[in-house]
């Protein structure tokens, strides 16, 4: 048997994480049995529990992020020339059905993220995974750091490079610093020599962001935050903005912060939708939606993290699979800076 956390149907719209005992999986052809060592939370987990995420599947194991070791291989896989072997420390591709198309999943009908969906998640002691979705974890990362890398790290990589095309010397704004994707975006952009600034409603988070490459930042709750930001840059507008909020502040971003021909790369709308005005088209602003990334981008991201020695920012660590419900509530309270990780 193996302990796991599944999505239990609640009363009304809200649902519950429930710790259960399941049969230990047996790897099928070309699969590997992975013993999970640590898992990490994402805001997606909260949206699933709140009933605000598409294709929710009840009684499905939750969780998209994990690091583990290969403990068994199927007979076919064991006899093949595949790169994995028992004992390897691995990261798991957090989605299935997107191979390499830079525009988006090759077949949306077969694309899914792990956890609380038709594809079983990783909040479990053992998971049986297609070997093609397993990648050796960067050696410089601890288990706790590695667990926080897959989903947020991939989302940020695609946002910064595939969609944002961030390069050395550009001015880049990352909004809402403190969350996993935003912190990765900050580190990635800084690693290639961009001038990175941040926003937050928490002054302490802005100061901490400077430790990871930010040149400065402003509190977006201030009425004239956009003017304050441009003072920091000496009046130079931004080439790229990486944003997950949208909402009312998106108007200030597009209208006042982005330069001519600048790009707003958006991977969420936690602050609500927004409407465009003709001025933004006249100024040649590009709005580029993005989410997650392909298996090819995941491999590129791992190589980038290894090359630049990037370490995921870990905010809080819980111990034991039974602590996952508590950790989810901690994430919901939004008091963390960096990833929330649970060791198994």
Helix content: 25-40%
SS content category: alpha/beta
Query: Which CATH-level-2 architecture of the largest domain?
Result: Alpha-Beta Complex
Task: Tally the beta strands.
Answer: 17
Shape: globular
What number of domains?
A: 2
Question: Which percent band covers the strand fraction?
Answer: 25-35%
Tell me the major beta sheet.
Answer: 7 strands, mixed
From the 3D structure, determine the CATH topology of the largest domain.
Answer: Quinone Oxidoreductase, Chain A, domain 1
Helical segment tally? 11
GO molecular function, one term: oxidoreductase activity
Domain Enoyl reductase (ER): 12-342
Protein name: Enoyl reductase (ER) domain-containing protein
InterPro entries: ADH-like_C (IPR013149), ADH-like_N (IPR013154), ER (IPR020843), GroES-like_sf (IPR011032), NAD(P)-bd_dom_sf (IPR036291), Zinc_ADH-like (IPR052711)
């Amino acid at each position: 048997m193996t302990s796991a956390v599944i999505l239990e149907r609640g009363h009304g719209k809200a649902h519950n994480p429930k710790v259960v005992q399941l049969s230990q999986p047996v790897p099928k052809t070309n699969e590997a049995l992975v013993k999970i060592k640590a898992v990490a939370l994402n805001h997606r987990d909260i949206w699933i529990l709140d009933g605000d995420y598409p294709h929710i599947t009840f009684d499905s194991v939750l969780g998209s992020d994990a690091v583990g070791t290969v403990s068994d291989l199927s007979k076919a896989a064991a006899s093949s020339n595949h790169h994995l072997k028992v004992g390897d420390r691995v990261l798991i591709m957090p989605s299935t059905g997107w191979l390499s198309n830079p525009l988006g999943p090759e077949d949306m009908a077969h694309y899914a993220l792990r956890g609380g969906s038709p594809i079983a998640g990783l909040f479990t002691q053992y998971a049986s995974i297609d070997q093609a979705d397993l990648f050796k974890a960067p050696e410089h990362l601890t288990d706790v750091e590695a667990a926080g890398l897959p989903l947020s790290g991939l989302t940020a990589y695609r946002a910064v490079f595939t969609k944002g095309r961030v390069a050395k010397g550009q001015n880049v704004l990352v909004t809402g610093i403190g969350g996993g994707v935003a912190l990765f975006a900050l580190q990635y952009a800084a690693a290639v020599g961009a001038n990175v600034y941040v926003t937050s409603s928490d002054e302490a988070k802005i100061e901490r962001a400077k430790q990871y490459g930010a040149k400065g930042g402003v509190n977006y709750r201030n009425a004239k935050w956009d003017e304050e930001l441009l003072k920091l840059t000496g009046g130079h507008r931004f080439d790229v903005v990486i944003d997950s909020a949208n909402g009312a502040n998106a108007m200030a971003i597009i209208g006042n912060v982005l330069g001519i021909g600048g790009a707003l790369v958006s991977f969420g709308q936690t602050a609500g939708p927004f409407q465009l005005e003709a001025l933004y088209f006249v100024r040649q602003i590009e709005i580029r939606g993005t989410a997650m990334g392909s298996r090819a981008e995941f491999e590129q991201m791992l190589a980038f993290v290894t090359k630049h020695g990037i370490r995921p920012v870990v905010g809080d660590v819980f111990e034991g699979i039974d602590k996952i419900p508590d950790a989810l509530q901690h994430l919901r309270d939004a008091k963390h800076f960096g990833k929330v990780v649970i060791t198994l």
